[in-house]
Amino acid sequence: MMGAERKSARVRSPQKKRGAMTWEDYVVSDVWVDCDPGIDDAVMLAALSGAVERGRVRLHGLSSVAGNMPLDVTTANLLALASYWALPHVPVARGANRPLVRAACDAAHVHGANGLGEVEIPAGDRALANDSAVLAMHKAICSLAPARRMRLVATGPLANIALLLRAFPDDAARIQDVVIMGGSTCGGNVTPRAEYNIWADPEAAHMVFASGVPVVMCGLDVTLRSGLSAEQLTSMRDGDSERLCALARMLSFYKGDPAAWPHGVCVVHDAVPLLYVLAPDLFQGVCGVVEIGLGQDDRGETRLVAAGDGADAGVAKASGNATPSNALVLSLVDALGFQKVLGNLLQAVR
């Protein structure tokens, strides 16, 4: 990271309407969600249900990937959660069962044996799509009207996105951005400098960052400050919504882990990319060049080697720098605003 050159600047979204703004005033996005449920994925999917209910996103599909848990578990959890949160009947596709190159890994010690903090939810009524995640994403992208672009929200390792861009390179022109939970410029949670999702499949991350598709990196810099307050969790647990109570019980699995409460909130890493799509003015960041460590000693590190002065989401150049930018790296979050918007979305889940 070039410390002298790095500046935080307000992320200005090109999606704004005129006049006074709230998070509900942004143009509705076409979204595909790729995830590895996971407790915090469960929070993200609940918030996604609220966003769909309020007409804030057009959801085109969901896909699973191995990450927090093995693929069989993340796929079963995704199907169950899609039904539990009453998400639209969009394709739910099974994705990559392992990293592109590395051995498979998981984070069962964080999420519990079933990936959902040992909370059992009904299997539900959803069935897997016949198509693989890659083919299902491709078909969804091709189905968009010519003027529309897909936003890929990825909250696990990036194997599915990398394989999509390799198999269907022309799809890159129809993707507005890939908004990921992953990476860090402030220290890691697997090694001193690597965050888990990137560390789990660094080759996939390298392919995505090098693809030319704009990447929005929602890394530990912002996710460790983005969460739900103890008061919100108590309200969810003691309220009249059985489903929100179940979500609060999932999050209580983090109770004994100080890393889950670093700034007085229960962090929900995987909700951050969705809230960036819905309410980008909650965040500040810089456009720059992010390199992915692929070696034995730097595996999964996300190095911000050139940074501009911040810019609109999707800008392809770092300001004042001839080096093409490959990412918008979020660096600051309005933590109270995040709690308010996320709480608002979850209240739509009854």
UniProtKB/TrEMBL annotation:
Molecular-function annotations in GO: purine nucleosidase activity
GO cellular component terms, A-Z: cytosol
Keywords carried by this UniProt record: Glycosidase, Hydrolase
UniProt-listed InterPro entries: Inosine/uridine_hydrolase_dom (IPR001910), IUNH (IPR023186), Ribo_hydro-like (IPR036452)
Pfam families, sorted: IU_nuc_hydro
Domain Inosine/uridine-preferring nucleoside hydrolase as annotated: residue spans: 31-338
GO terms under biological process: purine nucleoside catabolic process
SUPFAM superfamilies: Nucleoside hydrolase
Protein name, as recorded: Nucleoside hydrolase
Organism field: Collinsella tanakaei
